[in-house]
Amino acid sequence: MTRIANHDELERAVRQTVAAQPITDIHTHLFSPDFGDLLLWGVDELLTYHYLIAETFRASNVSYDHYWAMTKTEQADLIWKTLFLENSPISESCRGVVTTLNALGLNVESRDLNDYRWYFAETNVHDFIDRVFELANVESVVMTNDPFDPTEQPVWQQERQGDPRFHAALRIDPLLNGYESGMRKTFKAWGYDVTRSLGKKSCKEIRRFLSEWIERMNPKYMAVSLPPEFMYPENSARGRIIERCVLPVSKEYNVPFALMIGVTRAVNPQLRMAGDGMGKADLRSLENLCRENPDNKFLTTLLSRENQHELCVLGRKFPNLMIFGCWWFMNNPSVIEEITRERIELLGLSVIPQHSDARILDQLVYKWSHSREIIADVLVDKYADTLTAGWQVSTDEVKRDVSALFGENFKRFLEA
Ligand code: RAT
Ligand code: ZN
After folding, report:
1. What is the rounded radius of gyration, in angstroms, for the C-alpha atoms of the chain?
2. Whole-angstrom Cα distance, residue 324 to residue 311?
3. Of 72, 120, 339, 370, which one's alpha carbon is 20 to 30 angstroms from that of 250?
């Protein structure tokens, strides 16, 4: 076992190990190819990513109505012209497009969007999936699977030809956030005997729904996104469904419950999917959940920078809580660096530092190359400080640690 005794060697070993480590991406919005058009890829999809749509409305005078009336190609043309040609693409989402096109071997210097379109038009989706997974060095991804989505639901109800690199996650936002406003009726229409009062029988029916979908999807976890006002316990349909349905089913099937807290949906509805905002959450909700349910497992990511430190402290209190990823507005280099440091300082290696949230397959390339670099920076510093304190790690130990961060911690948490 060779120990690493100097800083340069350490830096080289850490960077090489992080680059070589295959990744398990625990939260994406990607789909395996059997979901057909739900799997998004290609340059027009990359450009019309909702993160870039929001930036385009700031930089151009296009009206909402005009933009939404355009075809996807026209929208992509406008975004390219506005954010890449009339301005320099230095925001994180813009830089991501550049990183991706470049890594795919396209001539970024030409700035010729039609040239990139040709490349994708001549590419087969199956080959492209292999290429992207290889370039990003991603081993597997977890999808976001919504049983309430009318385009997705039928795919699950047929015999499906999955792809072992794509795992499922059962997303239950409509059940938890929309029970009173319509979901109850949907449930009734689907043959679940539920009522507004959510008594014993209704809860049994919702548990039946969750169990059936767990058996159908074999998800890695059940997930929900929640507003900053989320409270638990809570005298609401959501509170009751979590307590009486989600937690018992999660425990019974050993399928963790993932809470993504802090999103305020449709702050600007004109922006459609790009119109969601955020706020600081009250983490007493998570504290109560973890304390009252020690036999349940929780995965959590938060949208507010101001919540990140208290989340780490909660992680120290509750081993049944696994903190993951730099979610959405957190997924920017400055914040990734800050919260990765904070997490490692408070929790050591017992976190999942990142997920990609990729919606477009190609994004795996940039989201992971950008994050790998920052996580490696932080690790180099942390090992260097430990070296100064007198502790030499071996290359095998660095490999063990990096593999924990990028995959093993998730696997072990699921298996526990
Ligand atoms: O990051 C995003 O693309 C958001 O629109 C959301 O999908 C968020 O990640 C979520 O899962 O709700
Ligand atoms: Zn997401």
Report:
1. 22
2. 10
3. 339
d(CA 170, ligand 1 centre) in Å? 15
Residue nearest to atom 5 of ligand 1 (CA): 273
Find the 189 Cα to ligand 1 centroid distance in Å: 28
What global pTM score does this model have? 0.98
Which residues 6+ apart lie within 8 Å of 60 measured at CB?
78, 82
Q: Which numbered atom of ligand 1 lies nearest the CA of 144?
A: 11
CATH of 7-415, one of 3.20.20.140, 3.30.499.10, 3.40.190.10, 3.90.226.10: 3.20.20.140
Can you tell me the distance from the alpha carbon of 314 to that of 412, in angstroms, rounded to the nearest whole number? Answer: 20
393 C-alpha to ligand 2 centroid (Å)? 35
What is the torsional sign of CA 73, 74, 79, 84?
A: positive
**Which amino acid, residue 118?**
W
pLDDT(1) > 80: no
